[in-house]
Amino acid sequence: MFRRLLAFTAAALLAGAAASTTVLLVAGYRYAPVRSYEVTVELSESATEEHKSAIRSELDDAPGEVVFENREEALARFRKEWKDDPERVAGVQVESMSESFRLTSEGREFDCAPIPRIRELPGVERLWVVMEPTASRPGAEIGC
User: Fold this and answer.
1) What's the Rg (C-alpha) of the chain?
2) Which residues, in sequence order, are CB contacts of 94 under 8 Å at separation 6+?
3) Under a CB-based contact definition with an 8 Å cutoff, are residues 83 and 89 in contact?
4) Rounded CA separation 142/76 (Å)
């Protein structure tokens, strides 16, 4: 008797799991993987230390790690990223690079709520958000 009850219970659990999985898949549920996002805030030529401090403060309120990149670091990164294209790198000087802040965060989704506020701060030339590519999924710029 106990074995029959145990077998019936196991069969009922498997049938319930299969049915609920089927319902979720038919309803359109898809697993959302954790992705990396990078917010880049390019600073204008006229950005003051006060502007930079205000921008940094807003970025520090968002989840993730914030890094400041000066012109020399930007040029080094540019040269590294385009090392296979010497013509593109040849004429670029440090004066043509911009200072920027980069916020890197991870999550299943990106919260765009603070982006419009940051974009409107004095000293911000341009702001964009990129969802980084993974081995199985392409990256994309997110419109916030």
Assistant:
1) 24
2) 71, 72, 75
3) yes
4) 26
| φ/ψ (deg, to 5) at 9 | -65, -45
Dump pLDDT digits (tens) for 29-49: 666 788 999 999 999 999 999
The torsion angle over the Cα atoms of residues 113, 33, 101 and 125, rounded to 10 degrees, is -50
Q: Which two tokens stand for residue 80?
A: 């590294």
* Residue reference for tokens 């609920």: 20
Contact 130, 142 (CB under 8 A): yes
- Give the three-state DSSP class for 36: strand
The values of phi and psi at residue 133, to 5°, are -70, 155
**39 φ, ψ to 5°?**
-100, 125
CA dist 138 to 28, 39, 73, 112, 135, Å? 21, 17, 26, 20, 8
Contact 100, 40 (CB under 8 A): yes
pLDDT tens track for 52-88: 999 999 999 888 999 999 999 999 999 999 999 888 8
